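HOLO CASE FILE
Compound: NAP
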Amino acid sequence: MIKRLCVIGVGLIGGSLARALREAKFVDEIIGASRNAGHLQKAVQLGVVDRYETDLAVAVKGADMVLVSVPLGAMNAVFTAIKGSLGVDAVVTDAGSAKAGVVEAVKAAIGEQPAWFVPGHPIAGTEQSGVEASFADLYKGRRVILTPTEKTSAAATQKVRAMWEAAGAIVNEMDVDHHDEVLAATSHLPHMLAFALVESLARMSEQREIFEYAAGGFRDFTRIASSDPVMWRDICIANRDALLATLETFRGDLDDLAAAIQDRDESRILSIFQDAKAARDGFAG
Ligand code: NAP
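Model generated. Tokens follow.
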């Protein structure tokens, strides 16, 4: 059980965890915190948090659990703001989509890698943002990856694990760098492709016609291009090296496909599509 949870950044991710923990009766009191009082008032109206503070140092006072669910570029400023106000037993975790950058930002803010900080990443989300988009079932049956460092206390990791499990998630642990490589391929690369495709098509002169005749496949493939641009800019910068490596591999594979089409190499084209279909059918099944 959590006595007082402080959620810094009550958007899709933080708001959904607050809703899930409240529904599971796993928390007594929830404090919301961020920059904009209007957003936080909305969170109170929706019953997502009990009360709010715009001063982060005040917000974390007395909290036994703190979730930092702000864009990656804001992590350093948030940890700098809260470091002097955390209680001795407080555990802090985050939800950032790339982990090495967060671990570095926390170390830079605190001056060392703290035992009370458990880096985390829920592998769940939608293309919507803000507290209005949050919902209690977001984490049901979904994975959460924790990437404790060698300095993270086992008790803190256990407490964060129990919190995500109460929200319905399946929790795994992974090394920070391995997490960033895996997520570069499975999440960050597809988002780059969706953003780049839609941006490229939007610049074509027949743009209106392209979107008018776009069918279900285009809608499925490009849904994630409606995701928050600030969040994804921060992810690109934070996971730059792993993302560039996976983009380079993909660029080579796309060149192979283009060459097969150029050469009218039917068997090569068929083999690429058959391999893709088998992999996707296996994954979807
Ligand atoms: P979101 O809905 O836009 O919420 C972000 C929240 O952060 C807002 O409530 C915003 O409130 C607050 N915020 C922004 N800058 C801040 C600052 N400098 N200080 C304090 N609060 C600040 O975003 P989200 O989708 O929940 O994403 C949050 C985190 O989860 C990100 O790190 C993201 O990488 C990660 N994540 C997202 C997804 C996804 O699918 N969306 C999935 C997994 C992980 P104010 O405007 O009031 O400050």
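CASE NOTES: The CA atoms of residues 211 and 218 lie 9 Å apart. The pocket of NAP is lined by residues 8-14, 34-36, 39, 69-72, 74, 77-78, 95-97, 121-122, 125, 129-130, 228, 231, 235 (CB under 6 Å).
CLOSED: yes
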